[in-house]
Amino acid sequence: MEFSGGSKSKEDQPFKEACEHALEELNCDFVGLALQKSKGPDISWHYAAGNRNDKYKRITVRYGKGIAGKVISTGRPMKIEGFPNNIHGKALEYPIMLAENLNCAFAVPIHFKGVPKGVLLVGKRTDQPISESDQHTILDAAKKLEKEMNSSI
């Protein structure tokens, strides 16, 4: 599967549905899916549910930058609580949090051919942190997305 970032087709439907399903299933306000482009280090937000605007579509971060870039570069989940107070760096380095007015988020990597190439982010606009059980549900949702991505190769 190529992550060129422009085409919206039937192949994209499972990813959009996964975001919408996670939004309904979890106690959250926003669910987004970011994917690294097939060529180059840039990462863009491709799908969202619960979004207040379409700014997410215009956000692109570099590998290692922003939530998506950090999760992809480390291959590990990232939790943010009390944004923008409890972060490393500046608030501007977290454009998805600013664009969607999120206070808490949990982001997990999605692997493509064994390499982290995507991020599933669940966020809240309240100060209530993402619960431990919701974090496990998010990890399970990411595993399902991985299977979907890797089966459409």
Automatic annotation (TrEMBL):
SUPFAM superfamilies from the entry? GAF domain-like
- What's a Pfam family in this record? GAF_2
Q: Which residues form the GAF domain?
A: 15-136
Q: Which InterPro entries match?
A: GAF, GAF-like_dom_sf
| Gene3D superfamilies listed in its UniProt record | 3.30.450.40
Q: What is this protein called?
A: GAF domain-containing protein
